[in-house]
Amino acid sequence: MVRLPYTTALTTLFSYGLLFAFGQLRDLFRKLLDWFRSKDLKGYAPICLGLEDFYVRRLYLRIQDCFGRPIASAPDAWIDVVERYSNDNNKTLHRTSNSTKCLNLGSYNYLGFAAADEYCTPRVIESLKKYSPSTCSVRVDGGTTQLHAELEELVARFVGKPAAVLFGMGYVTNSAIIPCLIGKGGLLISDSLNHNSIVNGARGSGATVRVFQHNSPSHLEEVLREQIAEGQPRTHRPWKKIIVIVEGIYSMEGELCKLPEIIAVCKKYKAYTYLDEAHSIGAIGKSGRGVCELLGVDPADVDIMMGTFTKSFGSCGGYIAASKEIIQYLKYTCPAHLYATSMSPPAVQQVISAIKVILGEDGSNRGAQKLARIRENSNFFRSELQKMGFEVLGDNDSPVMPIMLYNPAKIPAFSRECLRQNVAVVTVAFPATPLLLARARICISAAHTREDMIKGLEVISKVGDLVGIKYFPTEPPKLAKEAHKKPVAVILP
Amino acid sequence: MAKLYVQTAPPPDLNKNTEWFMYPGVWTTYILILFFSWLIVLSVFGCTPGMAWTVVNLFHFAVTYHFFHWKKGTPFAEDQGIYNTLTWWEQMDNGKQLTRNRKFLTVVPVVLYLIASHTTDYQHPMLFLNTLAVFVLVVAKFPNMHKVRIFGINAGS
User: Is residue A81 a part of any domain in this protein?
Assistant: First the structure.
């Protein structure tokens, strides 16, 4: 549910129309000027078909300096961003050797494990010396070390499932597992705002894909009923298998999934559920076990739980947790297990130590402290932003908060001005988000202190005034205490 | 003046090329662009209002025909080319015919034609050009013309 002022919708559409028109004009002139230049492809076909790269060339490259900024330190609460300059209006960028220290509001560092940690780092360095940076082998050949077996058991125990399997890359976990689970003759129903890895896996599987309206169990039920009644396309035979794919926290909205209702609908129609907890594992829930713990869903009700180690655990890779039979099946069919190099051992050790800290098995209560701190930080930051009049999406307790920008010109304005004031934010535009709904996505971490957040809020407020994104009325400061219960920007039913 | 807010749930359309058309404010923006382009044509050329409407109608014909019914595919590569044989009009609403958006887009050229021919008092040669424009545009939007390529024109990728 997004709520935007009507005039903003009109001006955003007009701006995109103008950008599109100028892009087309430039392409037209380029075609005219190159008419007589010999192309000499020697009979080969051109790499890009006419219109395919239009968005990249004419819109993305204009504001290229807001994306892909190289960093020169670990992504802790403060980060060193390398300065770049361009001599040809952002078509090519060159790195300098200077870097500026900025407040990091963009990394997925939810529990603060991204920088050196007193428990994790010594153990990681030890495992680096013992097992070397790479296993140089696939899991089935010689790439399963003791650490891999230990982590699989630990992840299964942490998430609450009987067994788990690891993969070296989070994106690959989705895009290589979904084709193993379902094929032609099956039906995949995925949320309309699912991540690109799920979309890719769904396309690669060959199953029929249907989409239901974001986070709406009633529409899911409607789609399920329609599809089960119609059966497979053209033959109308019953579906071989139905899998419903949802995410725990949607990374572009910061919203939690309505898991209990969706599970109830799936159980009613005997469809399998696949939960992608990339952003929610380790970051929400009382002991960090993700969205199931937060919403009170029994992990046994979700058939397959997927997650990544990149966000809360400060490592890389992904896992799938399910029943013993499914995991055994995946271990001998999934190409990511049979042909891809196994996870790097120091990365595995980092996850083992991070999970031990979260569970409190390292002998201290730092895990519980981190979890409490990230919840406090997210709620504080979000409520302060809403009081200033920004449109912030996402539920309470969620560490991801997108601030809506809408107009395409505000994307580079916000990004560059914040960088000038030493705050590094990530701005997201089309095609990762819908065309009209460009946003700046803030990710809060347990490593942010109160002072860091207050500085971030000051800068964002100043830049927000300059750029003009305070779409809702601000709450006057002296009423802030009484209005604590009732937010001004009414969040929608 | 109190701010007007609109509220919308994100539409379940996977094709990012046509999804933007389902948000509120699109119809109003389209009509406002036509109106302001009429004002600009009037100020630049200093012609009669009727001539200006004819110019807007013909320009609208050229632009919408080119982008809705001629150019195929999407301006980005994320969808791996699954829409490469479909024009924007055929991609709209996932190929479903006679939806509200399609009906609106069919009515706009007709209304423009009526305004243009009325304000030029149905004189030639403007009447002929306007009629040709509206005929081509409306026929191109018929449900029976979905994925039809007459004489194989524009059938290649």
Answer: yes
Yes or no, beta carbons of A434 and B26 under 8 Å apart = no
Taking chain A (493 residues) in runs of 10, the rounded mean pLDDT of each run is 84 92 92 82 80 88 91 91 91 92 91 89 94 91 92 94 93 93 93 90 92 91 94 92 93 90 94 93 88 92 94 92 95 91 93 92 88 92 92 88 91 94 92 86 92 94 92 69 46 47
Residues A414 and A346 in one domain: no
Smallest CA–CA distance from B85 into chain A, residue = A49
Are residues A298 and A383 both part of a single domain?
A: no
In contact, A319 and A351? CB cutoff 8 Å: no
A84 and A226, same domain (yes or no): no
Q: Determine the structural domain holding residue A180 and report its residue range.
A: 119-359
Answer for the pair B141, B89: CB distance below 8 angstroms, yes or no.
yes
Q: Does A28 lie at the interface with B, CB-CB under 8 angstroms? A: no
Q: Which backbone phi and psi does A428 adopt, to 5 degrees?
A: -125, 135
Nearest-neighbour CA in chain A from B123: distance (Å): 32
ipTM for the predicted complex: 0.90
Contacts of A34 (CB under 8 A, 6+ apart): none
Say if residue B125 is preceded by a cis peptide, omega within 30 of 0: yes
Length of chain A: 493
